[in-house]
Amino acid sequence: MDEEILVVYKKNFEEVHDRSLEEVRSVLDSIVSETGVSVGYTARETVRRGDFTGLDLVIVLGGDGTLTSIAHSVDDKTPVMGVNSHPRKHGEEGSYGFYMGSDPSTFSEDVMRALEGGAVENVLPRLQAEIETTSGNIIRSDPALNDLLVANTHQYQPSKYSLKRGGLETKQHSSGCLFSTFLGQGAWFRHAADVEGLEFPLEEVDDHYLFVAREMPRSDRSDDGSYWEWVSEPTVITSDMHRGYVVCDGWDETHFTRGATLTVGLNGPTLRLLTFRGSILEGVSQWIA
User: Fold this and answer.
1) What is the pLDDT of residue 91?
2) Chain mean position to CA 20
3) Are residues 193 and 237 located together in one domain of the fold?
4) Which of 47, 127, 134, 216 has its CA 20 to 30 A from that of 7?
5) pLDDT, tens digit, for every residue of 26-72?
6) Helices and strands counted in the chain (H then E)
7) Residues 90 and 199 placed together within one structural domain of the fold
């Protein structure tokens, strides 16, 4: 084997995460000595996009937040393997780890399956916003695996904007527009919109996304798709805010000013996420029709 692996780990000096890193390192040291695989390590806090160039596998050690914080830098060709460094099964303070297909207890078996091509590969769509400034410059936000927020940078002021999607065209104000991938709806969207009990067609989960205008005045909550919608067409927003921003997965911010036009859709690069005991969709089968 001549694969190159990068391990990105959560660095917060908590014993449970340090212990998991030691266990993962021990397994990988054995693999290196036996196969010649090249392995590098970097803390989440210091990782840069250039660190992911030319890799055969990225191993993310932490929880879902660790994965979403670095996945922005990973392209659509490099497989990513999530390892839960503090599984909830070991205590309520642990991480649920929805995207984390492995943990230290199964890592030895799982990483060999990943290297030998035996893992389940989940190709996950990601949201992205393209911003056209009033001067005509084009800026793209980071891709979002879970959700993407468009809002006023001053949270005490309303977000004012014009919205177009398909045949819908409306002016409105709210606390911001929240977009979510199908899989990302459990992270934030279900706290912002009541979609309990709804099921989504399996054939639509890769090319549709969820939209909601957060905390819109009740009198404006019509059922024409301007309040919330499960949709495939891009959403075009023209800002009427002095200052606004796009926030991807709760991490990086991309700012814009009044008059900027934002086009949001599932046009971000996909993410190749590896799992080992079933597909990622099996974990949310209750949402699928």
Assistant:
1) 59
2) 23
3) yes
4) 127
5) 999 999 999 889 999 999 888 888 899 999 999 999 999 999 999 99
6) 4, 16
7) no
